[in-house]
Amino acid sequence: MGQNSSRHETVNANRGVSLKMSSMERVEQIFEKFHRFDDGLILSFEYFYIPNEKLAAQMIFYARDHSLDGNVWRKVRVVVRDVEELCMKVRGDQFNSICSGVKLLRFDGVWCVDIDGVYGVDGEPRSLDEVREDGECYVIGGWVEAYEVFE
């Protein structure tokens, strides 16, 4: 990570769906169909250790599935593995709604999941250093998984 964290790729899930999608394409597709969980809820945020692996973090969101007709809301589980850093600044009276969405970002070979971060004029951070400085809830790690939760 270090000083050279200026390279930034915002993930765009508008590429269409192929029969053989990579795991990151599936994650991007979920972020797209749930409109980055904008106006949804964060139900949980936790970190945990898996034997013989680095730290992992899991977030459960409740959001509208914009790919379906009607007002269909679902739970989505997002897991970040090989966590290098996580931050969650919360107050006891803070509401759990997501106002500006969940960003799936790529910086210098690592993934960053940023919840409700507000950055600069265009709303996108330009570096990990900017996320660290201004972000209040984020996870930086080696890879990301996302799953719809069907109960």
Summary tags:
151 residues, 2 helices, mainly beta, disordered N terminus, 7-stranded antiparallel sheet
Topology:
Layout: E1 9-10, H1 23-33, E2 41-49, E3 55-64, E4 73-88, E5 102-107, E6 110-115, H2 128-134, E7 137-149
Antiparallel strand pairs: 1-5, 2-3, 3-4, 4-7, 5-6, 6-7
Notes on the structure:
The chain has 151 residues and is mainly beta. It has one domain (19-149). Helices cover 12% and strands 41% of the residues. It is built from 2 helices and 7 strands; from the N terminus they run βαβββββαβ. The chain has a 7-stranded antiparallel sheet. β2 (41-49) and β3 form a beta hairpin. The termini are far apart.
Catalogue the unreliable spans: 1-20
Protein structure class = mainly beta
Q: Helix tally?
A: 2
Whole-number average pLDDT?
Answer: 86
What percent strand?
Answer: 35-45%
Question: Helical residue percent?
Answer: 10-25%
Count of beta strands:
7
Series of secondary-structure elements, N-terminal to C-terminal: EHEEEEEHE
* Morphology call: globular
Main β sheet profile = 7 strands, antiparallel
Radius of gyration: 15 Å
End-to-end C-alpha gap: 38 Å
Tally the structural domains: 1
